[in-house]
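Progress narrative, work stream C.
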Amino acid sequence: MKVETFPLILGALVALIGLGLLADAWLPEQARFRSERRRRTRAERSLGGETAIGLGVLCIAAALMGRDSWPYSTVCVIAGTVLLLWGAWLNRTYFRERITNRGELRRGNPPEPPKSK
């Protein structure tokens, strides 16, 4: 395998990730659970933000596949970075909840202490 094909393979993998993000944003959502078990409501993700992140990842993939010989690789990297940052800004409440909100470790009643005789 030549070294020149490595950016093409990496770009194809990154493009698949971008297409997965776009598909997740565009396809209708189906509930994975029957009832809400959380005490607080979940933060909703911005579908426009997720689409912007997917497009940004696709721009980065195009720059990887274009290598140094493509004249628009710099434009793709700049556009991809702007789209990634914009999508992250639109989804900031969702990301904040996913990163910082762990919830209670144990749900339900606390265990009773053992009775001494």
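Work stream C, second folded protein:
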Amino acid sequence: MPAETHIERGPLDRQAVFELIRDQLADILETEPGRITEGSSFAEDLDADSLALIELVEALEEELGERSVGFRIDDEDLEELRTVRDAVDYVVAKLGES
């Protein structure tokens, strides 16, 4: 799904957050989006290194910063995100705070 589909400005539900993260990760890791599930571990299942995760954070901050002013993923929080589900939960919670 092209990134342009995420441009609508309504609130993001959990599924939309997952799709955004999945699509960004698929681009960064040059893999099929269907290979990425919520249960996927960044390191073990997707072979995502720390650079790939930093790229993901930057992409999410750019995309979500347009919807939620000042959306940021703190560096110390990044260490806690081990799976796609962790990232989805984190983003949904952060968006709920704004």
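DSSP finds four helices and no strands in the chain. No further action is required on this item.
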